[in-house]
Design brief:
Order of helices and strands: HEEEEEEEEEEEEEEEEEEEEEEE
Distance between the termini: 97 Å
Helix content: 10-25%
Number of strands: 23
Strand order of the largest sheet: 1-4-7-3-9-11-13-15-17-19-23-21
């Protein structure tokens, strides 16, 4: 009798242990489903409109090479919820969370190269690479990196997040930041307008054979580094300092201080830089 009771007790113990193990596994599965990686694919046509809003983390966008939108989400918190939907040629991707943070959720999205993409993020990092369609970015403290874009319209706005544009060609560029720095690397043959309140604006590279670059800041510095072989037209206006020239100024470069010359028409076939700052320093290097 004692042996039978012991067997029953041992069996009950194993049964309870098994139920506990199954409960733990189920909870882990739910947690992983809410905090793990998910991937969703949408089929779209030409010039599809893609909107991505991430309230608490980075956004990465690259070309898919096909008429597909492949959205991969990664959550690091159970409080994050992803709301993704498609309506015709419009795809909207959005994260929601009651918890604040800069790395709670990640979006990595592949889109057709000609898609019109709108990105919004409060913090984190926004990376865009290899697109040929229009790109609109709105951010607060998030840093913005846009690389290898051609034949498109770029509109970027940040509160204090730094902005970097690299390898941009034949684009219409409109950039603004209240206090973030703006760096332009090899932005060529484009119409460029950059405004910053207190941030620094820097241009480095060869502007090519054409282009219009209007760089304006209230109290930040303006720095240009243009190869000596490049023929450019540089005009500047500063209430605080004259143009601070670097190593050498080659023929084909004009420069001036204050005056109404900023209203004059540009020379066709030569890239023009118009630099304006109220309190900052203006520097030009010709390496």
């Amino acid at each position: 009798m004692i042996g039978w009771n012991r067997i029953m007790f041992d069996s009950l113990g194993w049964f309870r242990a098994g139920r506990l193990a199954l409960t733990v596994v189920a909870l882990l599965a739910v947690s992983m489903a809410r905090t793990g990686v998910r991937e969703t694919t949408y089929t779209v046509g030409r010039r599809a409109r893609i909107s991505i809003t991430n309230c608490c983390g980075p956004i990465t966008v690259k070309p898919s090479g096909r008429r597909l939108v492949v959205a991969k989400t990664l959550s690091h918190s159970e409080e994050v919820n992803f709301v993704n939907e498609q309506r015709g040629e419009r795809v909207k991707l959005r994260s929601e969370s009651n918890r604040q943070g800069d790395n709670l959720a990640e979006y990595t999205v592949l889109v057709p190269a000609d898609a019109i993409v709108t990105l919004r993020s409060a913090n984190g990092v926004i990376d865009v690479e290899g697109l040929r369609g229009d790109v609109i970015v709105e951010a607060m403290t998030a840093s913005v990196h846009i690389d290898n874009i051609s034949g498109a319209h770029l509109h970027v706005r940040t509160l204090s997040g730094p902005i970097t544009l690299a390898n941009i060609g034949r684009c219409h560029v409109d950039v603004g930041s209240v206090s973030g720095n703006v760096d332009l690397h090899n932005v060529s043959e484009s119409s460029v307008k950059v405004n910053s309140g207190t941030g620094r604006i820097a241009y480095q590279g060869d502007p090519g054979s054409d282009g219009d670059y209007l760089l304006t800041t209230y109290s930040g510095d303006l720095d240009l580094s243009i190869p000596a072989r490049a023929v450019v037209d540089v005009k500047s206006r500063s209430m605080n300092s004259e143009l601070n020239q670097g190593k050498s100024i080659s023929s084909g470069v004009s420069e001036a201080g204050t005056g109404n010359h900023l209203l004059k028409s540009r020379t066709i076939g030569i890239p023009r830089f118009v630099l304006r700052t109220f309190r900052g320093r203006i520097g030009l290097k010709r390496p």
